Amino acid sequence: MRDTPAASTTYAFQKPRVRRMAIQKRASGGRPSKGDRHVLTTRIPTAQAEKLFAVADAQGISASSFIAEVMAEKLATIDLEQLTGQETLPLYKAS
Question: How far apart are CA 44 and CA 1, in angstroms?
């Protein structure tokens, strides 16, 4: 008789061993990159969130994509120079 357990014995605290590893294929295709992104978190009233999800779903896009599109449209209408109150200094006045 053996005093050591057989090689295939597993105990309750052990994960079962995988006999052979699956070959992983590199994904082909997928969506193209949307470029460099920054993660933002915000809290909005529940009623607005439900409407946002419904509109995004109706358009067939994620809520995140919908928010990004709406923000891009809004930011395109804002002139930063008017917000700061400073205009660029023309080069002929700089010297």
Answer: 69
Q: How far is the C-alpha of 65 from the C-alpha of 61, rounded, in Å?
A: 6
21-51 tens-digit pLDDT: 566 666 667 878 888 989 999 999 999 999 9
Cα separation, 16 vs 10, whole angstroms: 7
Is pTM beyond 0.85? Reply is: no
Q: Measured between alpha carbons, how far is 60 from 63 in angstroms, rounded to an integer?
A: 9
Residue extents of the structural domains in the chain: 44-77
* Residues in CB range of 62: below 8 A, 6 or more apart: 56
